[in-house]
Design goal:
3-stranded antiparallel β-sheet; about 120 residues
Length: about 120
């Protein structure tokens, strides 16, 4: 299916809590996650994609928990929801990062955790 067909589908089927698209091409044997708005803006309309799924932050959070295990948690500070994350190359509790609980943070962590090569 073309990106234009996917964009048309997104416009009619997207739910308000779906902010990320999970998409793939068979020949490249990988899966990519991207903000839906960025996907719609940057992809070429005639580009061919073999499949996609619109996902929520909860869906991606589950993936992050699968990759990170006890190195990731939700926390709050000053009423703001945060992601508490210890990157894979760090060992000390003091090296954990406190990041905004938002879609871009999830994608950034997923890229680090998978080396940019997510395989389902």
């Amino acid at each position: 299916m073309t990106v234009q067909e996917i964009v048309n589908t997104i416009k009619t089927q997207r739910k308000p809590d779906q902010v990320i698209i999970k998409w793939w091409r068979k020949e490249e044997d990988f899966i990519d996650f991207e903000l839906i708005d960025r996907f719609e803006k940057n992809a070429r309309p005639d580009e061919i994609i073999d499949g996609f799924e619109l996902v929520t932050m909860d869906n991606v959070w589950e993936e992050l928990q699968r990759f990170c295990g006890n190195r990731i948690a939700k926390s709050q500070k000053g009423g703001e929801e945060l992601v508490e994350w210890l990157p894979p190359d760090k060992e000390s509790f003091e090296d954990r990062q406190y990041l905004p609980y938002e879609p871009q943070t999830f994608l950034d962590i997923l890229d680090v955790e998978t080396g940019g090569d997510y395989v389902d």
